Amino acid sequence: MLRVTKLADYAIVMLTCFASHGGATHNARDVAREARLPLPVVSKVLKRLTREGLLTSHRGIRGGYGLARQPHEITVADIIRALEGPIAVTECADKVKGDCGLETKCPVRANWHMINQAIHGALGKITLAEMARPLQQQYVNISEPLSTGQSGTTSAQVL
Amino acid sequence: MLRVTKLADYAIVMLTCFASHGGATHNARDVAREARLPLPVVSKVLKRLTREGLLTSHRGIRGGYGLARQPHEITVADIIRALEGPIAVTECADKVKGDCGLETKCPVRANWHMINQAIHGALGKITLAEMARPLQQQYVNISEPLSTGQSGTTSAQVL
DNA sequence: AGCATTTTGGACTGATTTGGTACTATTTTG
DNA sequence: CAAAATAGTACCAAATCAGTCCAAAATGCT
Questions:
Q1: Is there a contact between B108 and A16 if contact means CB atoms under 8 Å apart?
Q2: Element of type H or E holding A116
Q3: Percent of chain A at pLDDT exceeding 90
Q4: What distance in Å separates residue B60's CA from the closest CA in chain A?
Q5: Which CATH architecture has domain A6-85+127-132?
Q6: Among A35, A153, A32, which Cα is nearest to B106's?
Q7: CB contact, 8 Å: A93 with chain B?
Q8: Between residues 44 and 73 of chain A, which touch chain B (CB distance below 8 Å)?
Q9: Do B116 and B89 meet the contact criterion of CB atoms below 8 Å apart?
Q10: Which of B28, B22, B61, B58 is nearest to B46 (CA)?
């Protein structure tokens, strides 16, 4: 669990196709074929990504979709947020005003908020450009925050 | 989105109660009163936590629940996993054998797996002991891994 | 032995979310 | 004007989630 929805998953696969093709425009049918996903689903996701500003669209007989920004300017967090709304691990993590009955004295809430920020930060650091080229693995540095070295890069703990 | 279920949220609140009371045993009714949650829900969560090995239980008239391990030996990842199963951001992130039709040539899969590990690592680093004492905020250091300072502690980006 | 209390396990239900499809409009090109 | 493509929305089936309830087993106490 702690799942991302399938639609967000599809979105990342689809956007990866765009990124690996140098930002050319594709129509929904081509994307569906390349991503091997049913056309209605692809169409739905593309529409939503466009409305959220990650893609640009052109209608008409030669229309299609294209990336609105450079691949390295689109993060995984952007994509998830576009399809699922704000990233909030718990219900009270994104609310300013807590109304869970435990509001002020709930010691867990502040911690949740921080965990949420941590995850959000991790997802916001991975760009589409990095997702497009496989097995590029030096962009996340979450593990061992206070124990071992902090040499800045290339310390991602994979597997 | 990217939500944790309410049950897991409750579980953390409830376990925090145990931790802040020095590991004494409480029965379901007392936990419900302290956590201000309905008794059936509390009971359900306690049962599951026991079955997953995070709590020990004693039946009978003086029975109740107690932490199976020390608070600093129980992580948030443990708790989430107990209530929701393995932490997997996407469906293919925890499978060894992918059957999504894109298996081998899917470049996104490996990256998802790494993202998953990153989140898992973050949640596995926060213990119940740290959740119990509020606003202790130097245990996560996810943000700014390669940009600004990395002084080891107290660089968690809160808010 | 018997009783009150507590956990255990499962089933069950209503609500919400998700995945996916369909249909109708609107825009653009030729 | 016709064809092709996107835009928007509505819709439905399936899955998941939240919460409740009940009967059974275990335990301690008198």
A1: yes
A2: helix A107-123
A3: 50
A4: 31
A5: Orthogonal Bundle (1.10)
A6: A35
A7: no
A8: none
A9: yes
A10: B28
DSSP string, B64-97: EEEESS-GGG-BHHHHHHHHH-S--SSGGGS-SS
Residues from chain A that touch B140, judged by Cβ atoms under 8 A, are 114-115, 118, 145
Q: Tell me: the pLDDT tens digits for A100-156?
A: 555 545 667 778 888 888 888 888 989 999 888 755 444 444 443 322 223 222 223
Does B57 contact strand C, using a CB cutoff of 7 Å?
A: yes
B48 strand D contact, CB < 7 Å: no
Assign a CATH topology to domain B6-132.
Answer: Arc Repressor Mutant, subunit A (1.10.10)
pLDDT per residue as tens digits for the range B37-96? 999 999 999 999 999 999 999 999 999 999 999 999 999 999 999 999 998 888 766 554
Query: CA(A63)–C1'(C26) in Å?
Result: 13
Query: What separation in angstroms does the CA of A74 have from each of A16, A78, A116?
Result: 11, 6, 20
**For tokens 């490996």, what's the residue?**
B110
In chain A, where the domains are located: 6-85+127-132
Nucleotide C24 C1' to residue A57 CA (A): 20
What pLDDT sits at residue B107? 65
Q: Which residues pair with B74 in a beta bridge?
A: none
With beta carbons less than 8 A apart as the criterion, state whether B92 and B114 touch: no
| C1’ C19 / CA A10, Å | 12
Q: Give percent of chain A above pLDDT 70.
A: 74
From B101, B111, B112, select the one nearest A33 (Cα to Cα). B101
Report the candidate in A40, A134, A140, A23 with the shortest Cα–Cα distance to residue A74.
A23
